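Customer ticket, subject: "Can you confirm the structure for Probable periplasmic serine endoprotease DegP-like?"

Message body: Hello, I'm evaluating your service for our small team and ran a test protein. I'd like someone to confirm that this is what the system normally returns, since I don't have a reference to compare against.
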Amino acid sequence: MRLPTVRFAVLLLSAVLAATSVTLPAEAQRAPETFAPLARQLLPAVVNISTTQAVQARPGRPDAPEMPQAPPGSPFEEFFRDFFNRNRPGQEGAPQQPQRPQRRGQSLGSGFIVDAQAGIVVTNNHVIDGADEINVILQDNTTIKAELLGTDPRTDIAVLRIRTEHPLTAVTFGNSDEAQVGDWVLAIGNPFGLGGSVTAGIVSARGRDIRQGLYDDFIQTDAAINRGNSGGPLFNMAGQVVGINTAIYSPSGGSIGIGFAIPANLAQRIVAQLRDGGRVRRGWLGVNIQQVTDEIAEALRLPGGARGALVARAQDGGPAAGGGIRSGDVILRFNNIDVREMRTLPRIVADTTVGEQVPVVIWRDGKEETVTITLGELPADQAQAGGGAPPAPPQPDRPVELSGLGMLVAPITDELRQRFNLRAEQRGVVIVEVAPGSPAAERELRPGDVIVEVQQERVTTPAEVQERIGRLRQQNRGVALLGVEGAGGQRFVPLRLRGERGSPG
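Agent reply: Thanks for trying us out. I re-ran your input and got the following:
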């Protein structure tokens, strides 16, 4: 007689599931029946790139094989060594070998045509890097010698031009910012020399940083990308190029469904500059920056938590220093664009027109300020040498132990300057001892590091360091922000404060 109760429970459960189910948009509930019409339309615009370059032959016989590796101590080890030495040219008893011409290496990649009338082809820089000759192979196997218009190694983009009476088909760039995770995409290219290969997948992720450079902002896709696909296009379902296939993650060298493409919005700007002038001009701010951590945000009383880019150094003579930005400022907005994290700032700056005056919102001394910077051009050599500060006058002072922080600091003397190999113009307070397990050791402070600022105030004597930290303790501040110069350059170090006897403060 419990059947009605069971039936009621089932109906109730069905109602709950129906109420909590997610209704998907109609377009998200079905996959394309076929990619054939789109592939047929796009294939003629995708090309194979073939390059050749001279390969330096090994000394002696150019085609001599390497000696096989035998287990150490094996009888074969001595046998192989004796055999190869006797047959190596130049060794006594070795047969004389005729001179052979230099061999030529060949590599294959992909590309795509973006201007049929002018014959403009886009590919990856690493596909054509070092090539003596570049050939573009069309879908019908027509081979055309290409001219290199320009390359940009920082984003791995190259632009070629082909001149031909042969009719060409071009594709256009789309808006890669509109590509969403889960969108269908097609990759077309020349994997392993098999031209005109089409693979399909989805956008797996956006904004990937794969540690290839400052401008990493890759689209990740699971469309199969293999060796030879480099430089080929990644299409959306409208037939627009939303990315340039550039790299894969693969322990085996083959596709495992993790490929990376340069976003079209980045590539399009680079291609336009390479096509017109053969080089890329990028905006330059002239700062060394570091990530704002939660502790740094706490030390600076920055509202909203960790955000922005902390200026570790404004390079002497750079646009930032000329516009009033200084060490210890946090850049929150650049040219009306929020800087949510450190790594976004170089991309925003690079995309800004050289010579443009831009507003920069910074956090300084507990409040927001806006400065105007006239953007410079990023030098070819990014290592900018800054002028030295005038030598500091000698300070009569003595070493001081910073209780609870685990370090002993001292004024910079000639003896310490020589001991720690400090610059003649170095100013600040040098760390001479660091206690194991202390807050200083946890932050990887080392003897020879020089404290130049405490809470964005310059310090020149141990007494000043001690006074600034004591003041922070009196204000019940939990973190002291130190500006430190060491072997790796200048950085800011958030140091958790403890009580005078080492207990939590």
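A couple of notes from the result: The longest strand covers residues 103-115. Residues 36-54+102-280 form a domain with the Thrombin, subunit H fold (CATH 2.40.10.120). Feel free to reply with more questions.
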